[in-house]
Structures are given as structure tokens and as C-alpha cells.
Design a protein that fits this description.
heterodimer; A: Ubiquitin-like (UB roll); five-stranded mixed beta sheet; 7 strands; elongated; B: 787 residues; alpha+beta; Aldehyde Oxidoreductase, domain 4; six-stranded mixed beta sheet; 27% strand
């Protein structure tokens, strides 16, 4: 492992994957394995900084108004940093592809898929996770409304739903039902909590 | 490997049935049409909570007791165990086949094994098809295996596994494993797999087709002779993917000879039993824990590959291992709903009375079994002469598993489509045709369900809608009947503990899969004890409790466990009454507890509060125990419902929009109306997806799944969500001491059928294959224009 480097500012690194090409010899095929669709992306140094990694780097994050310092490989996503390194497992992983919004967190107030965001890229930004919504024992109005309206079943999509809606209501406190529907259109739910989720959010938007 | 019972649970009776029995009366059925019935039950059975029961907690909209945990991110799922919880935790990953059918000629994991941070590598280099229950026999330590004796039979099959210090490192290690495949001919389509020259999926078989048990009743030939109208059609449904939010995940930890597994499972007991068999251990040495889990829908019974491989990796690495599938793996190898081609022939008299039903169905559960669809057809309408034949067709694809009401949504689409065509032929209202053919069943409330549903959807408008309008957008109404057999019953055991500080704990080894089981336990215990629901702490999801409960599937959980919870609470309450009776100068038998106050019947003025009473317990808490007693068989009857759909179809784009669904359902006693509605929403949403959007698509020449992800496998979102109105009908049953039945599956049984009927009504023509996607609708409209 190389010595941890302190990144400064605005770099860009992508999740590194090593694509192994399938070689075909006659009828026999040698294949690495089955992996997710692969994109070969070169680490692009930003004008300000050198490329990071592949070794660990020290990064400082602002999570729920707390400063957290981590020593991780630059390919670590924000989702993985939150869950596996900081123990903030309220942020859920369903698809890890940006297709379900279960891993939604707020980055400077904006609903963001943490699985599609590198941890190193949110330095200097404020990250809010589901663990940061309640004030002590006082729940956020959305959290209260979710419980009152039975807007959760297995509960796995719940944190992402709440944060998608918080991003909306922070901007549009009196959001219309149409806006509410659109705000969670990318949030996947299989149990069927969705009708009550819409009701819960509409109830908060009315107050 | 695959649950043999459709409900995914044992139907074994409790060994100790009480020998002495008593006859009791109960006022049951619908409140407006009560019936007093006499039933025989074991001596120790409690009186039924019947129509006369005054209930303070059960039947109320009690919010889920774990709600706060779930909205704050504190609820802990198996996926949420990290190195912070389990120091030294490693991450497992599985190397899977890229091919549908291939001989594995070489596996070399030596490079992977030497990668720093990789702690265990195991190869599955023996056998044809990976059988997790035989993992110890088919596994080797590697790092190389030349030549392996291995054939893979579907894309996604397990070939090797690693455990490493991080998930990415484990993925890096997988990429370093070299595998040489020699491809073999494959078949992934069940029609092609049925052909005599098709490549065989399983060695030692003569054909990919396996006939199911089937069912016959009466005399089919006679039935068709009596028929004045006969409808014959072939219908098709696609393979569906469960796509549970939480992928299959297990975290395994060995301590000497003891094993603990945190698992995302629908059944901690079944999981534990599988582990103990596979790893040849005493059940007492295996502990399975599921506090919260992110959905299963039938795909999470038993240990399966993820449980076996996590456990084997943890053993090899000498450290705890978390093995979590990603979405891609989940959709290749963790279950699916089988497809079906269903040929149906239905005969009836001119007045609509059914005389004969013949169905022949083929479907594929991949390399696994049970693609049957006809059990639904046998029970939904009364028909004296039936012959139902199901065949499974093996294909080189991931194994089917039960998915919410296994076989029933498929069968529903077929029979309800044909019923509607029969109605059209007879010039009868479709609802009227169904009313003609009710099954004989005591306490059947289907007539009321039809009436309520018809009223709420505005069925009387039906004749004004349909294809006649000038607008390119056509409106239609359709309906279908929900039915599901009742599998509730023993065994289930609960312990209710009351402590001196007034706290109550209800414990049993059941799991809450998101249906609200935890809340139901608290409500039933609170009701029987006479205390507010907040007094009750629930301790579930852990086999080490040694309080057996069913795995959660087949709509069995709530009404298998509730009578046991009630019995345990009643036992604890009687023990408490014995302790405090002297203080109230009363006999224990005279005491009551209501709203947290204990007093003698008729003397509420002299009472003890719950806390005053329990303070007398001293250091030894009271432990009450309760057992689920057998059902009153005569009333162990199916669960019913009816759904009505209103749709609009754009004949220019082929787009179908479901505007409204009215879902009328029963669960006997509705334990919690809010959670009842939530169950119905879930069933309906899944059904809308089945009708319009969902299908697993295969690349036939390559034998691979094209859409094993959430971006190409389309499911319902808030944008497609129709207005859903749930109507609860409550025919109380004397089957058990709660008066209830169950609800999980019925709400998804008729949804797709109702929508398909509504679309057929709107267009004035029928499409016989799901999903009703725009391409299919436009093709059908085009074909009609040409004809």
C-alpha cells in the first residue's frame, strides 16, 4: 500500500474496475467471470490535483454536521463509506446502480444517489443521511408522518424515500401531490408502501 | 433445496393434541348476517374472539411498533452488519458462470489466493448443477482444480467463492480466477425445451418435461357433452423476478463448533434446519437471526446457496463473513416466478352454469421444479367436471421459487380471461356469470365483495364504455376473483413474560418480513392481557429462543402465531391473577384486566393498576406459555377477494393506464386495518406490474438474461401507480381463537386478470399474453385492422 495521500480539492476518480476480456479459442472460451456491465474509465487528474489511488487516501467528510475522517481507497463510494466504514447503515443498498434511489442522501441539500458518488468527491460538502434527520428524540415531520400513515412495510426503501421527499419539501414546503409523485418516481418500492408514502408526504406538505 | 410445500412450510400437526375436547358456541360470519355455530375444540382452547367480543386493541389502526426504528435508519438488517459489529468481518463474493450450459475444464484461483487481503478461496469443482445442500461434497479448497468434474446448467451458477477484507477486493480476486469453459448446447425457452431433440438440462433424464400431479374431478367428457357453449384458448405469462429490495444476504460467524448466521430470510427455523443438515451439526449449535428483512416475496426460504457459501467461507477463513448478492446475481440466481403456456377449455350451459374445465399447462422454473398454475382453477369457481394437467419444463435458467401466491396469478389470468369470453358468448354480464358459479362454502362473503366492488368501481357504467367511442383513448372495466387456500395452523409456541416493573415481553422464533408480524404479536398479547400495546416488548427473529413458529409464506404467519400469542398471554394473566387475587379479596377466576386495571367482575371500583399488581411479583417474573392448537377443520377455508379495474388504453400509442383499482378482501378478522390496507396495496402494485410491465427477457442464442437489473426490468413506480381503494370485508371465522384467516397472497392473485379483462373490454378484443405492453397492443390493433 502506498502512503496515504491527502487529496486537495477538486479531483476526479472513477470506481476502478479491471476489465478482463473474454478470449475465444475455437469452441472453448476463457472468461474472467460474470461482472456488472463494465466501463473502462481512466482516472483523470483535475487541473488542481494529481490522480488518487489505488492505495488508501485520507479524506474528511461532513456527515450530519459531524466531521469524520476516513482512510479509504479512492474507489470507495459514498454509500460504502457510510455503511461499511462509518456504520451509518440507515442508507440502504438495493441496486448499487443508481436505478432505485434507496441510497439517497442529501449532498448540500440535493437528493443524491450515494452509490453513484465517490466518497472523495463530497469533501467540503454537507452530507445528510437518515440518521441525521431527527433532533434527539424528536422525529422529523416526514418521519412522524411515515409512521402515522403506515408508509413503510419492510422498511428497506424507507430512508431513501424520506430523503427524496425531504429534498423536495425543503425547497417546496407546500409541494403539490404532482410534485410529491415526481419526487419519488425514481424510488423503488416492492412491498407496496407507495400509496401511503404519497399520503404521508402530502400531509406534511399541507401543514 | 426447494420448499416442497406450496406455502413453504411444514403442515405437520403438533404431536400433543389435547385428548379432551369440548363443544363451544361462537357467533361468526358477517356482522349484519351473524350465524351462531357450534364447534368442537380441545379443552384448553380459549373462546373465539367472535362477533360479540369487545376488543380494545385488535382491529385498531395501531402504528407499527418498529416504525421509529425504520424511519430513523436504526433498524438492523442482515446487510447492515459491518466490521464495527463483527470485528474482522470479511466480505464474500461468488464467481458465477457466464454461460447457460458449459463444461468447466479448468479453474485456477492461485492468483486470487495470493492477492493481499484475500482470506479464503473455495472452488465448487464437482457435480452437475450446484446443490448448496451438498456443498461439503462438491467443494474443494483449491487453489487449482485440473481437471474439474463440473458442468454448469445456467447463467449465474456458482463456480467459486472468495472472502476478502473488502467487497471490492473480493471482486478483484474474482477477476483473477481463470476459468475455462467448453460451451454445451442450451435451451432457455420452455416451448423449445419441450421438443424431442432439445438439449437436456439434467443428466440422466430422457426429457425436460416433468408432469405434475394434476387433478381430476367428475367426468370431463360428460361435462363437455352437457355444455352448450365451449370456449377454448391458449394464454401466456412471462417469467417474473422477485426483486426484493434487500438482496439475499447472510453473515456467518463461527465460535468453535457453534455457528451464528444473520440472514435475510423468511424463515429462521427453516434456515437453521437446513444449515444443521448441510453442515452436519446439532440444531442447538446453530443460531439464525433475522431482526428485520428487506422483503422476500417467496424467494427467501431455507439456507440456499448464499447461506451455505457464507458459512463455508467463514469456516475456511476462520473469521466472520458477510455474503451479499448484488442485484445482478439476485436476478440470475435467487429465484423467479415461472412462466406458463396455458391451454384452457371451458364448457357451460346457456344459463352460465359451468359444466367442464380442462387445462393443460407448461411452464419453466428454470432448472428447478414447480411451475404449476392450475390449483387456482380447481377452487375459484364451482365446476363439477375438471381435468387439470401441469407440466414443468426444465430450461438452462435460474431456478424458480415461490413468488407471492405461487401459481395463482398465472392461473387467474387464464381462467378469468376465459370466463369473460364465455360471458360475452352468453351475452351475460361477467359479474353475473361468476355469481352463477360460487363454490359451496360456509361463511362465504363473496357476494358482498362483488356488490361492494361493483358499486365502488361503477360497474353499472360498463355498457357505456368500451371500443365504441370516437376518441382514440378507450375506457374499460374488468374484474377478477381472489382465492388462496388456508394453510394456517400449528406448530407455533409463544412465551409471554411479565416482570415486577410491569414490563411484558412476548417472545417467539417468528420473523417479521415487513408484513407487521412484530406489531401483531404485541397487539394480540396486549389485547388478551388488557394492557396498552406500548407495554409489550416483542422479542422475535432468533432461533435460540427455541419457541417454534412457521416460516413466513403462504399467508400463514399472522393466524398461525396469533392464537399461540393469545394463549401465552392468557396463561401469564391467570398466573398474575392468582398472585393478586388476595389483595383484591376475590377469586382469581373473577378477575379481569381492562385498560391496564385489574378488578373483580362487576366491582371496578376496587382495582389495582397494572404496575401495582406486577409490583407484587418480586424478583421472579411470570412466564406464560401458549401453543397453537389445531384448526377447526370445517372452517379451515380459503381466503377470498374480488378486484375491479378501470383502465384507459391509448390506441395510438398502445399505452395502458390503470386509473383505479378497487380491491375488496377478507382476512376473517382484520387484525389491523392499516396493515391490511398496506398488504393489499402491495399485492395490487405487484399485479399491475405483472399486467403491464414486468418480464424477464432472455437472449435465446446466448442463453443469458438481458434485464437482470432495475433499469431494464421495469416495475411500477409512483408514476404508474393507480388510485387503489381497499375495502375490508370481515367474515369472522370460528377456525381459531382469533377469528381470523390471513392475507398475504390474495391481493396479488386477480389484479393482472382484472386489468387484462378491463383492457379487453376497452379494446373490444383480447390479447392473450402478459404483459400488455404497447408493442403487443399496437400489433393486435394492426392485425385487427388487416383482418
Amino acid at each position: 500500500m502506498s502512503k496515504p495521500k491527502k487529496p486537495n480539492g477538486n479531483h476526479r476518480v472513477s470506481r476502478r474496475k479491471f476489465l478482463k476480456t473474454a478470449g475465444i479459442v475455437g469452441e472453448a472460451v476463457t472468461a474472467g467471470l460474470l461482472v456488472k456491465p463494465q466501463v473502462r474509465v481512466k482516472a483523470q487528474p483535475s487541473p488542481k490535483g494529481a490522480p488518487l489511488g489505488p492505495g488508501r487516501v485520507e479524506i474528511a467528510l461532513d456527515i450530519n454536521n459531524q466531521k469524520r475522517v476516513l482512510n479509504v481507497e479512492p474507489r470507495v463510494t459514498l454509500l460504502e463509506a457510510l455503511r461499511e466504514h462509518l456504520g451509518l447503515t440507515g442508507t440502504k443498498r438495493i441496486c448499487d446502480h443508481g436505478a432505485c434511489s434507496a441510497c439517497t442522501v442529501l449532498v448540500d441539500g440535493r437528493a443524491t444517489c450515494s452509490c453513484m458518488t465517490l466518497a472523495v468527491d463530497v469533501q467540503g460538502k454537507k452530507v445528510t443521511t437518515i440518521e441525521g434527520l431527527a433532533q434527539g428524540k424528536t422525529l422529523h415531520p416526514l418521519q412522524k408522518a411515515f409512521i402515522e400513515h403506515d408508509a413503510l412495510q419492510c422498511g428497506f426503501c424507507t430512508p431513501g424515500m424520506i430523503l427524496s421527499l425531504k429534498a423536495l419539501l425543503d425547497k417546496h414546503p407546500r409541494a403539490t401531490p404532482r410534485q410529491v409523485k415526481a419526487a419519488v418516481a425514481g424510488n423503488y418500492c416492492r412491498c407496496g408502501a407507495l400509496p401511503n408514502i404519497l399520503k404521508a408526504a402530502e400531509a406534511v406538505a399541507k401543514t | 433445496m426447494y420448499p416442497t410445500n406450496r406455502a413453504g412450510r411444514s403442515t405437520a400437526r403438533s404431536p400433543q393434541e389435547a385428548p379432551r375436547r369440548k363443544r363451544i358456541k361462537a357467533k361468526v360470519g358477517l356482522a349484519e348476517k351473524p350465524q351462531v355455530v357450534e364447534i368442537e375444540v380441545p379443552d384448553r382452547e380459549l373462546p373465539v374472539w367472535d362477533l360479540d367480543a369487545k376488543l380494545a386493541v385488535v382491529g385498531k389502526r395501531v402504528p407499527r411498533i418498529e416504525g421509529a426504528e425504520k424511519v430513523t435508519g436504526q433498524a438492523k438488517y442482515a446487510l447492515d452488519y459491518t466490521p464495527r459489529d463483527l470485528p474482522g468481518l470479511l466480505y464474500g463474493k461468488i464467481l458465477r458462470s457466464s454461460f447457460a450450459h458449459a463444461r468447466v475444464e479448468k479453474i485456477d484461483a492461485s492468483k486470487a489466493q495470493t492477492l493481499p487481503g484475500v482470506k479464503a478461496v473455495i472452488l465448487f469443482d464437482k457435480g452437475q448443477g450446484f446443490d448448496p445442500s451438498a456443498i461439503l461434497a462438491v467443494m474443494s479448497d483449491g487453489p487449482t482444480s485440473t481437471p474439474p468434474d463440473r458442468v454448469v446448467i445456467f447463467e449465474g451458477e456458482e463456480i467459486a467463492a472468495v472472502a476478502a477484507e473488502s467487497e471490492q477486493l473480493a471482486e478483484d480476486a474474482l477477476r483473477l480466477i481463470e476459468v475455462k469453459f467448453r460451451r454445451l448446447p442450451h435451451v432457455v425457452d420452455h416451448e423449445e425445451a419441450r421438443q424431442p431433440n432439445a438439449p437436456l438440462v439434467h443428466r440422466g433424464t430422457q426429457s425436460n418435461v416433468v408432469a405434475g400431479e394434476g387433478q381430476t374431478r367428475g367426468d370431463l367428457e360428460k361435462g363437455f357433452k352437457e355444455a352448450e357453449v365451449v370456449i377454448e384458448r391458449t394464454l401466456r405469462v412471462p417469467v417474473l423476478l422477485h426483486n426484493s429490495p434487500e438482496c439475499h444476504v447472510a453473515v456467518a460467524k463461527w465460535e468453535g463448533k457453534k455457528l451464528t448466521v444473520w440472514a435475510s430470510t423468511q424463515g429462521v427455523n427453516g434456515f437453521r434446519d437446513d444449515l444443521s443438515k448441510t453442515f452436519k451439526m446439532d440444531k442447538a449449535d446453530v443460531r439464525v437471526i433475522t431482526q428485520h428483512m428487506g422483503g422476500g416475496f417467496g424467494s427467501k426460504f431455507g439456507m440456499q446457496s448464499f447461506g451455505a457459501i457464507a458459512t463455508a467461507l467463514a469456516q475456511k477463513a476462520g473469521a466472520p463473513v458477510k455474503l451479499a448478492y448484488d442485484r445482478h446475481e439476485e436476478n440470475l440466481a435467487a429465484g423467479n416466478r415461472p412462466d406458463a403456456t396455458m391451454w384452457v377449455r371451458l364448457g357451460a350451459k346457456k344459463d352460465g352454469t359451468l359444466t367442464a374445465l380442462h387445462c393443460r399447462s407448461y411452464g419453466t422454473a428454470g432448472f428447478g421444479r414447480d411451475a404449476s398454475v392450475t390449483p387456482m382453477m380447481a377452487i375459484v369457481y364451482k365446476c363439477p367436471n375438471i381435468q387439470l394437467e401441469d407440466s414443468d419444463v426444465y430450461t438452462h435458467a435460474g431456478q424458480g421459487m415461490p413468488m407471492r401466491a405461487p401459481g395463482f396469478p398465472q392461473g387467474s389470468f387464464a381462467i378469468e380471461s376465459v370466463m369473460d369470453e364465455l360471458a360475452a358468448e352468453l351475452k351475460m354480464d361477467p359479474l353475473e356469470l361468476r355469481r352463477k358459479n360460487f363454490v359451496d362454502q360456509p361463511l362465504l362473503a363473496l357476494d358482498k365483495m362483488y356488490a361492494l366492488g361493483a358499486e365502488k368501481i361503477g360497474w353499472s357504467r360498463r355498457n357505456e364504455l368500451g371500443p365504441k367511442t370516437n376518441s382514440p383513448i378507450k375506457h374499460g372495466l374488468g374484474m377478477g376473483t381472489a382465492v388462496w387456500p388456508n394453510y394456517c395452523g400449528p406448530p407455533a409456541v409463544c412465551r409471554v413474560t411479565i416482570s415486577a416493573d410491569g414490563s411484558v415481553e412476548a417472545a417467539m422464533a417468528v420473523q417479521d418480513i415487513g408484513t407487521g408480524t412484530r406489531t401483531v404479536v404485541a397487539m394480540v398479547a396486549a389485547e388478551e392481557l388488557g394492557v396498552p400495546v406500548e407495554f409489550v416488548k416483542v422479542n422475535i427473529g432468533d432461533t435460540s429462543l427455541e419457541l417454534i413458529a412457521p416460516d413466513s409464506g403462504g399467508s400463514v404467519t399472522a393466524l398461525s402465531i396469533s392464537p399461540a400469542v393469545r394463549a401465552a398471554a392468557a396463561d401469564a394473566k391467570q398466573q398474575l391473577f392468582k398472585k393478586v387475587a388476595p389483595a383484591l379479596k376475590a377469586q382469581p377466576g373473577e378477575l379481569l384486566c381492562e385498560g391496564g386495571k385489574i378488578f373483580a367482575r362487576g366491582k371496578p371500583a376496587k382495582s389495582l393498576t397494572w404496575q401495582q399488581a406486577t409490583a407484587r411479583l418480586g424478583a421472579t417474573p411470570i412466564a406464560g406459555r401458549g401453543e397453537r392448537l389445531p384448526n377447526v377443520e370445517a372452517y379451515s377455508l380459503p381466503l377470498w377477494g374480488a378486484q375491479f379495474a378501470e383502465v384507459e388504453v391509448d390506441t395510438e400509442t398502445g399505452q395502458v393506464r390503470v386509473l383505479r383499482m378497487v380491491a375488496v378482501h377478507e382476512a376473517g378478522r382484520a387484525l389491523n386495518p392499516a396493515m391490511f390496507e398496506s398488504q393489499v396495496y402491495g399485492g395490487v402494485m405487484m399485479g399491475v406490474g405483472y399486467a403491464l410491465l414486468e418480464r424477464r427477457t432472455m437472449d435465446k442464442p446466448e442463453g443469458r438474461v438481458i434485464n437482470p437489473n432495475l433499469e431494464d426490468y421495469k416495475m411500477i413506480s409512483s408514476e404508474e401507480l393507480p388510485e387503489i381503494e381497499t375495502v375490508i370485508v370481515e367474515p369472522i371465522t370460528p377456525m381459531n381463537n382469533i377469528g381470523g384467516k390471513g392475507l398475504g397472497e390474495p391481493p396479488t392473485v386477480p389484479t393482472a386478470a382484472a386489468i387484462a379483462n378491463a383492457v379487453a373490454h376497452a379494446l373490444g378484443m383480447r390479447i392473450y399474453e402478459l404483459p400488455l405492453s404497447p408493442d403487443r397492443i399496437l400489433d393486435a390493433l394492426e392485425a385487427r385492422k388487416e383482418a
